[in-house]
Specification:
single chain; about 350 residues; alpha/beta; six-stranded parallel beta sheet; globular
Protein backbone atom coordinates (compact mmCIF):
# COMPACT_ATOMS: atom_id res chain seq x y z
CA UNK A 1 0.00 0.00 0.00
CA UNK A 2 1.01 3.65 -0.34
CA UNK A 3 2.31 5.74 2.53
CA UNK A 4 4.46 8.84 3.12
CA UNK A 5 7.64 7.91 5.01
CA UNK A 6 10.31 9.97 6.76
CA UNK A 7 13.53 7.97 6.66
CA UNK A 8 15.59 9.99 9.17
CA UNK A 9 14.83 12.63 11.79
CA UNK A 10 15.82 16.04 10.49
CA UNK A 11 14.78 15.47 6.88
CA UNK A 12 12.20 17.95 5.62
CA UNK A 13 10.71 15.84 2.84
CA UNK A 14 8.61 12.69 2.91
CA UNK A 15 8.91 9.92 0.35
CA UNK A 16 5.67 8.45 -0.93
CA UNK A 17 6.21 4.70 -1.30
CA UNK A 18 4.00 1.82 -2.40
CA UNK A 19 5.78 -1.03 -0.61
CA UNK A 20 4.52 -0.37 2.93
CA UNK A 21 2.48 -2.90 4.91
CA UNK A 22 0.41 -2.28 8.04
CA UNK A 23 1.31 -4.89 10.66
CA UNK A 24 0.32 -5.90 14.18
CA UNK A 25 -3.28 -6.92 13.54
CA UNK A 26 -4.63 -9.31 16.16
CA UNK A 27 -6.64 -9.40 19.40
CA UNK A 28 -7.71 -5.96 20.57
CA UNK A 29 -6.68 -4.34 17.28
CA UNK A 30 -8.53 -2.85 14.34
CA UNK A 31 -7.49 -2.26 10.74
CA UNK A 32 -8.58 1.09 9.34
CA UNK A 33 -8.84 2.41 5.80
CA UNK A 34 -7.86 6.09 6.06
CA UNK A 35 -10.06 8.38 3.99
CA UNK A 36 -8.88 11.81 5.13
CA UNK A 37 -6.12 13.11 7.35
CA UNK A 38 -5.09 16.58 8.45
CA UNK A 39 -1.57 17.93 8.52
CA UNK A 40 -0.84 19.13 12.06
CA UNK A 41 2.24 21.08 13.15
CA UNK A 42 3.06 18.25 15.55
CA UNK A 43 3.85 16.12 12.49
CA UNK A 44 6.46 18.68 11.45
CA UNK A 45 7.79 18.83 15.01
CA UNK A 46 8.28 15.06 15.00
CA UNK A 47 10.06 15.25 11.65
CA UNK A 48 12.55 17.84 12.85
CA UNK A 49 13.14 16.19 16.23
CA UNK A 50 11.34 18.67 18.49
CA UNK A 51 8.95 15.90 19.52
CA UNK A 52 10.59 12.52 20.23
CA UNK A 53 9.71 9.87 17.67
CA UNK A 54 11.70 6.84 16.46
CA UNK A 55 12.42 6.65 12.73
CA UNK A 56 11.81 5.68 10.02
CA UNK A 57 8.21 6.65 10.59
CA UNK A 58 4.97 7.60 8.90
CA UNK A 59 3.67 10.96 10.16
CA UNK A 60 0.02 11.77 10.64
CA UNK A 61 -2.24 11.41 13.67
CA UNK A 62 -5.27 13.50 12.71
CA UNK A 63 -7.22 11.01 10.61
CA UNK A 64 -10.58 9.46 9.88
CA UNK A 65 -11.77 6.52 7.83
CA UNK A 66 -13.53 3.18 7.92
CA UNK A 67 -13.02 -0.02 9.87
CA UNK A 68 -11.76 -2.78 7.57
CA UNK A 69 -11.44 -5.59 10.13
CA UNK A 70 -11.59 -6.12 13.88
CA UNK A 71 -9.48 -8.45 15.99
CA UNK A 72 -10.67 -10.91 18.63
CA UNK A 73 -12.10 -9.32 21.74
CA UNK A 74 -13.00 -6.03 20.08
CA UNK A 75 -16.51 -4.86 20.92
CA UNK A 76 -18.51 -1.86 19.80
CA UNK A 77 -16.92 -1.78 16.34
CA UNK A 78 -17.75 -3.55 13.10
CA UNK A 79 -16.32 -3.61 9.60
CA UNK A 80 -17.60 -0.60 7.68
CA UNK A 81 -17.98 1.67 10.70
CA UNK A 82 -16.95 5.29 10.19
CA UNK A 83 -14.38 6.36 12.78
CA UNK A 84 -11.93 9.09 13.68
CA UNK A 85 -8.44 8.27 14.94
CA UNK A 86 -7.76 9.05 18.59
CA UNK A 87 -3.97 9.19 18.95
CA UNK A 88 -4.15 9.20 22.74
CA UNK A 89 -6.68 6.52 23.78
CA UNK A 90 -7.48 6.09 27.45
CA UNK A 91 -6.82 2.68 29.00
CA UNK A 92 -9.46 3.26 31.68
CA UNK A 93 -7.42 1.56 34.40
CA UNK A 94 -4.36 3.70 35.18
CA UNK A 95 -4.31 6.29 37.99
CA UNK A 96 -4.86 9.18 35.55
CA UNK A 97 -7.90 7.50 34.03
CA UNK A 98 -9.32 6.62 37.45
CA UNK A 99 -9.00 10.28 38.45
CA UNK A 100 -10.88 11.32 35.33
CA UNK A 101 -7.82 12.85 33.67
CA UNK A 102 -7.92 10.53 30.68
CA UNK A 103 -5.93 12.99 28.54
CA UNK A 104 -2.92 12.17 30.75
CA UNK A 105 -3.09 8.40 30.17
CA UNK A 106 0.29 7.09 29.04
CA UNK A 107 -0.95 3.90 27.41
CA UNK A 108 -1.15 5.52 24.01
CA UNK A 109 2.41 6.83 24.23
CA UNK A 110 3.66 3.30 24.78
CA UNK A 111 2.37 2.39 21.33
CA UNK A 112 4.78 4.88 19.74
CA UNK A 113 7.69 2.56 20.49
CA UNK A 114 6.17 -0.42 18.66
CA UNK A 115 6.41 -0.48 14.85
CA UNK A 116 3.01 -0.82 13.19
CA UNK A 117 4.30 -0.84 9.60
CA UNK A 118 7.03 -2.59 7.69
CA UNK A 119 8.82 -2.37 4.36
CA UNK A 120 11.16 -4.82 2.63
CA UNK A 121 14.00 -2.96 4.34
CA UNK A 122 12.66 -3.28 7.87
CA UNK A 123 10.26 -1.89 10.45
CA UNK A 124 8.53 1.47 10.18
CA UNK A 125 6.90 3.31 13.07
CA UNK A 126 3.67 5.30 13.04
CA UNK A 127 3.76 8.76 14.60
CA UNK A 128 2.23 8.72 18.10
CA UNK A 129 1.42 5.05 17.61
CA UNK A 130 -0.83 5.81 14.63
CA UNK A 131 0.61 7.15 11.34
CA UNK A 132 -2.26 8.32 9.14
CA UNK A 133 -0.36 9.44 6.04
CA UNK A 134 -1.15 6.04 4.62
CA UNK A 135 -3.97 4.08 3.05
CA UNK A 136 -4.35 1.63 5.95
CA UNK A 137 -3.21 1.47 9.56
CA UNK A 138 -3.53 -1.03 12.42
CA UNK A 139 -4.22 0.51 15.82
CA UNK A 140 -5.61 -0.42 19.21
CA UNK A 141 -9.39 -0.57 19.22
CA UNK A 142 -9.49 2.42 21.55
CA UNK A 143 -7.94 4.56 18.82
CA UNK A 144 -10.98 4.04 16.57
CA UNK A 145 -13.84 6.25 17.75
CA UNK A 146 -17.18 5.89 15.89
CA UNK A 147 -18.54 9.06 14.29
CA UNK A 148 -22.09 9.87 13.14
CA UNK A 149 -22.91 9.44 9.46
CA UNK A 150 -23.45 13.17 8.95
CA UNK A 151 -19.86 14.07 9.90
CA UNK A 152 -17.60 14.14 6.81
CA UNK A 153 -14.26 12.38 7.12
CA UNK A 154 -12.30 15.61 6.73
CA UNK A 155 -14.24 17.25 9.58
CA UNK A 156 -13.84 14.20 11.79
CA UNK A 157 -10.09 14.21 11.13
CA UNK A 158 -9.77 17.80 12.41
CA UNK A 159 -11.75 16.95 15.51
CA UNK A 160 -9.32 14.10 16.15
CA UNK A 161 -6.58 16.55 17.18
CA UNK A 162 -6.39 20.26 16.35
CA UNK A 163 -9.98 21.25 16.99
CA UNK A 164 -10.22 19.25 20.22
CA UNK A 165 -6.91 20.68 21.44
CA UNK A 166 -7.80 24.31 20.76
CA UNK A 167 -11.41 24.24 21.86
CA UNK A 168 -10.52 22.29 24.98
CA UNK A 169 -7.80 24.73 25.99
CA UNK A 170 -10.37 27.53 26.16
CA UNK A 171 -13.29 25.51 27.50
CA UNK A 172 -11.77 22.78 29.69
CA UNK A 173 -8.40 24.08 30.82
CA UNK A 174 -8.66 27.86 31.06
CA UNK A 175 -12.45 27.91 31.45
CA UNK A 176 -12.66 31.32 29.82
CA UNK A 177 -15.31 33.49 31.50
CA UNK A 178 -17.94 35.45 29.57
CA UNK A 179 -17.02 39.10 29.11
CA UNK A 180 -13.29 38.50 29.58
CA UNK A 181 -10.32 39.60 27.48
CA UNK A 182 -8.29 36.98 25.62
CA UNK A 183 -5.12 36.93 23.53
CA UNK A 184 -4.16 33.95 21.39
CA UNK A 185 -0.50 33.82 20.30
CA UNK A 186 -0.13 31.59 17.25
CA UNK A 187 -3.04 31.26 14.83
CA UNK A 188 -2.57 28.05 12.90
CA UNK A 189 -5.24 25.35 13.07
CA UNK A 190 -4.99 24.89 16.85
CA UNK A 191 -4.84 28.64 17.51
CA UNK A 192 -7.89 29.28 15.34
CA UNK A 193 -9.71 26.55 17.28
CA UNK A 194 -8.70 28.31 20.50
CA UNK A 195 -10.14 31.56 19.14
CA UNK A 196 -13.38 29.73 18.39
CA UNK A 197 -13.40 28.21 21.87
CA UNK A 198 -12.98 31.63 23.48
CA UNK A 199 -15.83 32.95 21.34
CA UNK A 200 -18.09 30.05 22.36
CA UNK A 201 -17.30 30.86 26.00
CA UNK A 202 -18.41 34.46 25.50
CA UNK A 203 -15.11 36.37 25.68
CA UNK A 204 -15.66 40.05 24.98
CA UNK A 205 -12.27 40.76 23.37
CA UNK A 206 -10.25 38.16 21.51
CA UNK A 207 -6.94 39.38 20.12
CA UNK A 208 -5.25 37.04 17.65
CA UNK A 209 -1.47 37.38 17.39
CA UNK A 210 0.48 35.98 14.46
CA UNK A 211 3.31 37.19 12.20
CA UNK A 212 1.53 35.96 9.04
CA UNK A 213 -0.99 38.41 7.61
CA UNK A 214 -3.21 35.74 6.05
CA UNK A 215 -3.57 34.00 9.41
CA UNK A 216 -4.48 37.26 11.10
CA UNK A 217 -7.15 37.83 8.47
CA UNK A 218 -8.44 34.30 8.99
CA UNK A 219 -8.61 34.76 12.76
CA UNK A 220 -11.00 37.68 12.29
CA UNK A 221 -13.32 35.46 10.27
CA UNK A 222 -13.32 32.85 13.03
CA UNK A 223 -14.24 35.18 15.86
CA UNK A 224 -11.25 37.29 16.85
CA UNK A 225 -12.24 40.89 17.57
CA UNK A 226 -8.78 42.12 16.57
CA UNK A 227 -5.72 40.61 14.93
CA UNK A 228 -2.20 41.99 15.34
CA UNK A 229 1.38 41.11 14.50
CA UNK A 230 3.67 40.25 17.45
CA UNK A 231 5.22 43.73 17.48
CA UNK A 232 1.74 45.27 17.77
CA UNK A 233 0.75 43.23 20.84
CA UNK A 234 2.05 45.77 23.35
CA UNK A 235 -0.12 48.46 21.81
CA UNK A 236 -3.16 46.17 21.85
CA UNK A 237 -2.52 45.39 25.51
CA UNK A 238 -2.41 49.10 26.32
CA UNK A 239 -5.52 49.98 24.33
CA UNK A 240 -7.71 47.07 25.39
CA UNK A 241 -6.62 46.50 28.99
CA UNK A 242 -5.16 49.91 29.92
CA UNK A 243 -1.81 48.18 30.20
CA UNK A 244 -2.92 45.72 32.86
CA UNK A 245 -2.78 42.64 30.66
CA UNK A 246 -5.32 40.18 29.33
CA UNK A 247 -7.45 37.94 31.51
CA UNK A 248 -6.37 34.91 29.48
CA UNK A 249 -3.42 34.46 27.16
CA UNK A 250 -2.96 31.28 25.14
CA UNK A 251 0.48 30.29 23.84
CA UNK A 252 -0.10 28.07 20.80
CA UNK A 253 3.42 28.03 19.33
CA UNK A 254 5.41 25.77 21.65
CA UNK A 255 8.46 27.98 22.28
CA UNK A 256 9.78 29.46 25.51
CA UNK A 257 10.14 32.90 23.91
CA UNK A 258 6.46 33.13 23.04
CA UNK A 259 5.52 31.60 26.39
CA UNK A 260 7.45 34.42 28.07
CA UNK A 261 5.66 36.97 25.89
CA UNK A 262 2.37 35.37 26.86
CA UNK A 263 3.27 35.57 30.54
CA UNK A 264 4.16 39.24 30.29
CA UNK A 265 0.86 40.04 28.58
CA UNK A 266 -1.25 38.21 31.16
CA UNK A 267 -2.65 40.43 33.91
CA UNK A 268 -1.80 39.80 37.55
CA UNK A 269 -4.12 37.07 38.74
CA UNK A 270 -4.88 36.11 35.14
CA UNK A 271 -4.36 32.83 33.31
CA UNK A 272 -1.57 31.80 30.96
CA UNK A 273 -2.51 28.63 29.08
CA UNK A 274 0.26 26.70 27.32
CA UNK A 275 -1.14 24.82 24.32
CA UNK A 276 1.85 24.51 21.98
CA UNK A 277 4.02 21.38 22.13
CA UNK A 278 7.69 22.31 22.43
CA UNK A 279 11.13 20.78 22.76
CA UNK A 280 12.48 19.13 25.91
CA UNK A 281 15.56 21.39 25.95
CA UNK A 282 13.63 24.66 25.54
CA UNK A 283 13.16 25.96 29.08
CA UNK A 284 10.55 28.50 30.15
CA UNK A 285 11.70 30.59 33.09
CA UNK A 286 10.01 32.78 35.66
CA UNK A 287 11.69 34.15 38.74
CA UNK A 288 10.42 33.17 42.16
CA UNK A 289 9.36 36.69 43.10
CA UNK A 290 7.15 37.27 40.06
CA UNK A 291 5.74 33.77 40.36
CA UNK A 292 4.60 34.59 43.89
CA UNK A 293 3.81 38.28 43.49
CA UNK A 294 1.88 38.20 40.20
CA UNK A 295 -0.23 35.17 41.14
CA UNK A 296 -0.69 34.29 37.48
CA UNK A 297 -2.07 30.84 36.86
CA UNK A 298 0.13 28.87 34.44
CA UNK A 299 -1.95 26.05 33.01
CA UNK A 300 -0.57 23.58 30.45
CA UNK A 301 -3.28 22.01 28.29
CA UNK A 302 -2.68 18.50 26.99
CA UNK A 303 -4.99 17.47 24.11
CA UNK A 304 -7.65 19.91 25.25
CA UNK A 305 -7.30 19.20 28.94
CA UNK A 306 -10.31 16.93 29.32
CA UNK A 307 -11.91 13.63 28.40
CA UNK A 308 -11.33 13.44 24.67
CA UNK A 309 -14.41 11.35 23.90
CA UNK A 310 -16.63 13.95 25.54
CA UNK A 311 -14.67 16.68 23.77
CA UNK A 312 -15.28 15.00 20.39
CA UNK A 313 -19.01 14.88 21.10
CA UNK A 314 -19.05 18.54 22.13
CA UNK A 315 -17.16 19.62 19.01
CA UNK A 316 -19.64 17.78 16.80
CA UNK A 317 -22.58 19.33 18.65
CA UNK A 318 -21.13 22.84 18.33
CA UNK A 319 -20.39 22.26 14.63
CA UNK A 320 -23.90 20.99 13.95
CA UNK A 321 -25.36 24.02 15.73
CA UNK A 322 -23.25 26.39 13.65
CA UNK A 323 -21.42 27.66 16.74
CA UNK A 324 -18.01 26.73 15.31
CA UNK A 325 -16.84 26.71 11.69
CA UNK A 326 -14.73 23.69 10.81
CA UNK A 327 -15.17 23.54 7.02
CA UNK A 328 -13.45 26.90 6.50
CA UNK A 329 -10.42 25.77 8.51
CA UNK A 330 -9.50 23.49 5.61
CA UNK A 331 -7.69 25.90 3.33
CA UNK A 332 -5.96 23.34 1.11
CA UNK A 333 -6.70 19.84 -0.16
CA UNK A 334 -4.14 17.47 -1.68
CA UNK A 335 -3.69 13.84 -2.54
CA UNK A 336 -0.89 11.92 -0.87
CA UNK A 337 1.53 12.75 -3.69
CA UNK A 338 1.18 16.42 -2.76
CA UNK A 339 2.23 15.97 0.86
CA UNK A 340 5.54 17.85 0.51
CA UNK A 341 3.80 20.87 -1.00
CA UNK A 342 1.43 20.77 1.97
CA UNK A 343 4.39 20.70 4.38
CA UNK A 344 5.87 23.77 2.72
CA UNK A 345 2.54 25.60 2.96
CA UNK A 346 2.34 24.85 6.66
CA UNK A 347 5.91 26.00 7.33
CA UNK A 348 5.32 29.34 5.61
CA UNK A 349 1.95 29.85 7.31
CA UNK A 350 0.04 29.79 4.03
CA UNK A 351 -2.33 27.06 5.24
CA UNK A 352 -4.45 26.67 8.37
CA UNK A 353 -5.21 23.01 7.81
CA UNK A 354 -4.52 20.88 4.77
CA UNK A 355 -6.75 17.87 4.19
CA UNK A 356 -4.95 14.92 2.63
CA UNK A 357 -7.50 12.79 0.80
CA UNK A 358 -6.71 9.11 0.38
Amino acid sequence: MRAAVLHEIGQDKLEVLDDVEAVGFGPGKVRLRIRATGLCHSDVSAMNGVLPQPAPFIPGHEGAGEVVDIGDGVTGLSAGDRVLVCWLPACGACPSCRRGQTQLCLAGFMNAGTPNFKRPGGDVFGFAGTGTFTEEVVVDAGCAVPIPDDVPFEIAALIGCGVTTGLGAAINTAQVEAGSSVAVIGCGGVGISTVQGARVQGAAQIVAVDPVASRREAALRFGATEAVSPDELADAKQRITAGEGFDYVFEVVGKSATARTAYENTRRGGTLCIVGAGAMDDNFQVNMFELFFDEKRILPSMYGGGDVLRSYERAIALWRAGRIDLESMITHRVRLDGINDALDQMRTGESLRTCIEL
